[in-house]
Amino acid sequence: MSHSHNADANHEANNAAAISEIKKVTIILSVLTLIELVLGFWMMGIASESLRLAIKGVIVILMMAKAFYIVAYFMHLKHEVKNLIMTIIVPLLLFVWFIAAFLWDGGSFRNLRNSYDPYFKAQSTIKVEKKESKHGGTTHEVAPAAEKH
Amino acid sequence: MSTTTTASPNEAKLWGGGKSPFNVEYGKLMMWYFLMSDAFTFGAFLISYGTVRFSTNGWPNSNEVFRSFPFAPEGVHAPLVFVSVMTFILIVSSVTMVLAVHAGHNMDKKGVVRNMILTIIGGIAFLSCQAWEWNHLFHEGAWWGRNPFLNADGTASSTNFTNFFFTITGFHGFHVFSGKVINIIMLIMTLRDKFEQRGHYLMIEKAGLYWHFVDLVWVFVFTIFYLL
């Protein structure tokens, strides 16, 4: 924030600016988290699969925004030299391929199994009776069914 | 590519030797590179979670699984409540860490000590919450290799859900723990005037980077496990 070549008079002003920046980012992070939670609560009551997917998309965007504010302001990366920013950010672009390729692969594997593995398909349609009571003790009744899978 | 064409005299001086072209101290630069590699470790964990989830037909509903909180009355279920408390604890401890770094810039020893103590308390609070949650889930029958929760559609689930949950939150919790140890060491060094003697509080900045990274990872873990 305050670089060494600043005069003493500038120092006070920089100090105040730095503190107000910290306050601003704190408020932004809290508000973004609250919006995420409101969306999370809202999503519980929604049955429509496509609307849920849209809300999940919004939550992911909010998550990226929070990550940006933490890295840029709390970790101070935004105020570093451009060279440093680039050596950190450019390698992280690998994540674009990483996420796309692997999630795609997961989805493809699911399709293949649903098409060619009747056992897998059948397993995921048989409903297990929910023996769960409110007083716990569910472990022994449900766990064997889960292990069979 | 574009940098070669727009190389200003200023930039040439930056790479001319005699000073750090990144304008940061060696340790801080290495901390950044370590955090980048750690980001890939966590990324690999979370992406493998996503891949397995995408390749399965059913998955447990996180609102069914994570619905308890300490001292909850019998039968009261409040999904998302406890984890939001944990999230805010970590955000607040991140803010106190920034304030400690800021105080370090101003050579304000008292400010550093106060904010480091608050950060450490935040870390302890977060870990306590996580310990409670793990203990609670364990007593519900969840652990590595055991999954008492059915899929959201009522079909039998595999153990993938609990395996990923305990591995990833455990790895994150271990980072919180080591960050807390680093912060305690920094606090002791501050109290013993180590940084006053050196004339700078750069070590607080490096510990701060690590602590913020822990908060950053929680942003992703929280969203992916509890919200999506």
CATH class of chain B: Mainly Alpha
Main sheet of chain B, how many strands, which sense, barrel?
none
Any idea how many domains of chain A? 1
Q: How many H/I helices of chain B? A: 9
What labels would you give this structure?
heterodimer, A: 149 residues, 76% helix, disordered N terminus, B: 228 residues, mainly alpha, Four Helix Bundle (Hemerythrin (Met), subunit A), 9 helices
Could you explain the architecture of this structure?
The complex is a heterodimer of chains A (149) and B (228). By secondary structure, chain A is mostly helical. Chain A has one domain (8-148). In chain A, 76% of the residues lie in helices and 0% in strands. Chain A contains six helices and no strands. Chain A has helices at residues 8-44, 49-74, 82-92, 94-116, 118-123, 139-148. In chain A, helix 1 (8-44) runs antiparallel to helix 2 (49-74). The termini of chain A are far apart. Chain B is built from nine helices and no strands. In chain B, helix 3 packs antiparallel against helix 7 (160-191) and helix 5 (81-105) runs antiparallel to helix 6. Chain B has helices at residues 2-5, 9-14, 26-54, 62-65, 81-105, 109-139, 160-191, 194-198, 202-227. Chain B is 71% helix and 0% strand. The radius of gyration of chain B is 22 Å and the shape is globular. Chain B has one domain: Cytochrome c oxidase, subunit III, four-helix bundle (Four Helix Bundle (Hemerythrin (Met), subunit A)), CATH 1.20.120.80. With 228 residues, chain B is mostly helical. Chains A and B meet through helix 1, helix 2, helix 3, helix 4 and helix 5 of A and helix 3, helix 5 and helix 9 of B.
